[in-house]
Amino acid sequence: MNTIVDRFLNHVTMYRLVLFYVAGLLAVSFGLGFFKLVPHDPTALAFSGVVILAVCWLTNRLFAILFRVPVNTESIYITALILALIMPPVTASNLVGVAGLAVASVVAIASKFLLAIGRKHIFNPVAIGVFASAMLLDQPATWWVGGNMTLLPFVLVGGLLVVRKVQRFDMIGVYILANLVATLATTTPEMYGEALSEALIYSPLFFAGFAMLTEPLTAPHAKIPRLIYGALVGALSSPNVHIGSFYLSPEVAFLVGNLFAYAVSPKGRFKLTLLRIEKMASGCYDFVFATEKKLAFKAGQYLDWTLHVRHPDDRGNRRPFTIASAPTEGEVRLGVKFYPGPSAFKRTLSAMKPGDVIYGSQIAGSFTLPRNETEKLAFIAGGIGVTPFRSMVQDMIDRKDRRPAILLYGNNRLDEIAYADIFDRAERELGLRTVYAVAEPHAAGSNLHQGLIDEALIQREIPDFRDRTFYISGPRAMVVRFQRVLKHLGVARSRIHVDFFPGFA
To answer: Do 472 and 496 touch, CB atoms closer than 8 A?
Structure first.
């Protein structure tokens, strides 16, 4: 079952998955409305949804033309659909209610352009939109989708898929725990049962966490700040938390959390101009870019890349990719594997010419070299999952970092091996040992293993494996498999660092 779920998740972007999630909830709510299983008339829900979608689309169109930047099409509709799920549905005769929907929609979309520093927006668009509607017109969000028992199973199933996709179970867990602790801390003991029931069943706790807390552009990416962010938003979302006579709402909790996230996160959005494209292996290419200003990142970190895709498909126009270059290099490299039937994003990427631009944001990731330069390392790479190791090894060469390191690099065919020149140079200059595992028959070479990387190969090539820190990068199924193998071999959990590439052909 896990393999089937992951196979589906590997072929859809995070944004498209969230779009499916919120669109599905709205469709289910509309259908249940005819049976009076949700508290709102389906006609009012449909009318409100149309108003919000129209205003969001028009506002985004105007600002995109004004600022001349590519935008993530999915994010427009995600914002609109979340607003439709939490703002009170109204009919055309309720002019104040319609005005509240319009204000929330305009402010939500406009905030992505206007409330931004260095091309990075600060606040969750939905949170700032509904806050503006409440403050200006006294039309607050009612978060009705999160307080309905009938919808709860749909909220949970879809939401857990989103969390599995983005691998943020730790942040969601801390968020829920902090909310429950704050709720109990502000409730008398005899009311604990009712308070917990209200929080877990009849509050927006789960929907807000799944649909908004996971939004990557306004949340920290580093682990510790991410956990603090989840705890902060969770605690402040508790219904009894107040400052004097002012009781905080979920949207206010998000705004406070967003300020914290902005303070601790890398700043800015980067414009990268294509210099050239280099073929590095069969079906694999390096896109080499110049930047407006030098990027400050650590070897092994990734960047969110946004490309203007004329007709985006269900995999969207924004992707996280590891930066294949080292921080010591003047150019920025993006290593990409192209498969048959590529996505619209990759088709557009492959058609780029020197001088074309792409935008990057959110430098993040903890898949980086340890500070202790005497620590012995072991790298396990599968396919295009080798890109963070290209960054790390090039960085080690440039800094003359001679820490003991071994790389096991697996591919299906010999001609799929990428960056062999970098690894060969590291072997000569640093003593890095690379073993290429190739599945195709009759492959031969002094440092080549015919077959897949397995437990026996690890034991043979890395006899001191219990003393090494392992880094694993590749498809999720491969990463999970080697986590299990290393644990079975007795490698401590703290010595296993993982990264995975979610596909997106």
So the answer is: yes
